[in-house]
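queue> holo job accepted (adenosine-5'-triphosphate)
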Amino acid sequence: MQVKPMRANPGGEIEAGNVVGRDRLIKEIWNALHVQSVVMVAERRIGKTTVVKKMRSGPPAGLRLIYNDVEGLSTPLEFVEAVARDVESLLPAVRQAGSKFRRMLGHLGGIEIGGVLKLPPQMSPNWKDLLRATVEDLLDHCPDSFHVFVWDEIPLMLDKIRSSAGEQVAMDVLDVLRGLRQKHSRLRMIYTGSIGLHHVLSGLREAGHANAPTNDMRTIEVTPLDRDDGRMLAQALLLGEELQCSEPEETADATAEEVDDIPYYIHQVVARMRAVGNEASAALARSIVRKALVDAQDTWNLAHYRDRLDGRYGPDRLTLVLAVLDAVGAAGEPLAFDDLGHRVRSTVPREKAGSDFVRDVIDGDDEKLRKLLTSLERDHYLCRDPHTGHYRFRFSLIQRWWNMKRGGA
Ligand SMILES: Nc1ncnc2c1ncn2[C@@H]1O[C@H](COP(=O)(O)OP(=O)(O)OP(=O)(O)O)[C@@H](O)[C@H]1O
Ligand SMILES: [Mg+2]
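queue> job finished
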């Protein structure tokens, strides 16, 4: 296939026509959307938003995608406001025609500033009705198409709602959305996010709220690029940056392989090649990756793989999480559960356990350890060999970084 040259742009907007690969994944998502809504899970920076943007450039006939990055929102009312703005910008007629939402707003005293919809805080108690009204307006006015709301980074919004208003309110948002999905057969949603909902809602689940607010949705993981696509992206970037290269195939191969075919890091490697000279080679790719793993400026933003653990696992489980990742990182091969348990128990002294959870695991509670490992799998740190069930790091790049950072390499 002809490779189209592309400039390296790590973390930047990628035009739909420049998105490499993802066709199989996108087909899988469209297929799922025929029947149900989708949770797209993935590690940070793996390319979720880029996938959604490519989807937006060519949805199948009869299907409309409505995208919003909701990461910055922190109350249910702000969320309703964002959804209503999206609906009204799509369908100005809804606004003029005296929609359910606008009628409700009239009663409640909603305002518009400079033509922009603004819901004042006193409407907070009505957020559920307002949300239902605006979504139903859309469906009522467009009876012939399917509507897919894409809420990018919705777990981050829910986390903020949880912090400001409590976990029950975060759960209410998901419950109302689930209710809407169940009521309307032409409504679909895509939730994307790099923190799993299991973190946002863990407290509630432990408190016995059994209703799973997303168990009607299909979970689809965004993985790194396929091998061939990783190589093709590297080739496109090497060409786009006009780097001289005596062995282009070997160089593209090494560039993609060194970073586990994660497109963001492929862009980073090539951007760095351009920054240091005019030439590219496999050896240079390897050397750039080695340096990035110990870069004090952390230009690849790797520190978050460690930093985010504090918030996600809290002081009562953190010691154990670090011990697990240290053990798996240092091992030369995937570890069996018993072996991993033994290594972890021998490194965390009981008197330093610091919490009942850690103490229980040290005292032999395998169930708790398994639960923790499952959480680390869902967070994309670990994965299991499909044949043996043994544990290893999900990405070799992150394992290498972890070992350097934690002094085990
Ligand atoms: N399919 C692709 N083709 C080319 N470049 C890509 C592709 N996917 C991702 N990238 C590169 O990786 C970067 C990160 O991608 P993207 O923003 O889609 O990831 P994300 O998973 O949404 O990240 P975040 O967790 O920060 O929201 C992009 O800016 C781009 O440089
Ligand atoms: Mg994103």
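queue> The pocket of adenosine-5'-triphosphate (ligand 1) is lined by residues 9-12, 14, 19-22, 42, 44-50, 194, 233, 263-264, 267 (CB under 6 Å).
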